[in-house]
Amino acid sequence: MNKTEQFHYLQEKGPLRDKVLFRPILMYFAANFIGKTYGEFASDYKVLAEANLRCMDEFGLDMLGLISDPYRETSAFGAKIKFIPDGVPRCLNYVVQSIDDVKDLKNPDIYKCERTLDRIKAGELLSKKMQGTIPIIGWIEGPLAEACDLTGVENMMIRLMTDPDFSNMLMDKCMKTAKDFAKAQIEAGCEIIGMGDAVCSQIDGDTYNQYVKNRHKELISYIHENG
Domains of the chain by range and CATH? Predict the structure, then answer.
């Protein structure tokens, strides 16, 4: 079985008899491994693809990944991103400060925005090279994580407690772009879509149930429906 067939076997029948699938998240390490900076890894799909392929060959990875940083969608929404040679890219401004900003926020065309298109191209390149023999993991930001990227973690935490209209409207717009970005990566050849929403660990269960749980279910269902 090739690596994609092994993954499908795991999904459908359970653990493989003689193998545990190996998929560490490699970003900074992968960039350094091929003599590139993290900034190059995050900003150039060719570097990201090469780093994944070289690590696959050297360390026996069973999946490839497009993850690099949390600001792909944020950039598409209009935020300014600074690439750091040996650090994670930095978001230089919050594009949402008020309810009026949320109302005026336009969902981007992810094919016309540099950073989202860059990730799509990485998926296309890896898919072309591997011809379906290994799963490719795309990546999107979850609705709360992206809302925090757009307005700031502290502000969003306060809004969750005090301003449900702001919170719901902003996360609804984040959902639309998350779906668009997920679908584009699936169409580019991704077998799996990962979703980053670790900031949910900073809210209680009631807040999660009120704002995020159903959005997660909707987003995951949408991803499954599209492949």
Answer: 3-225 (3.20.20.210)
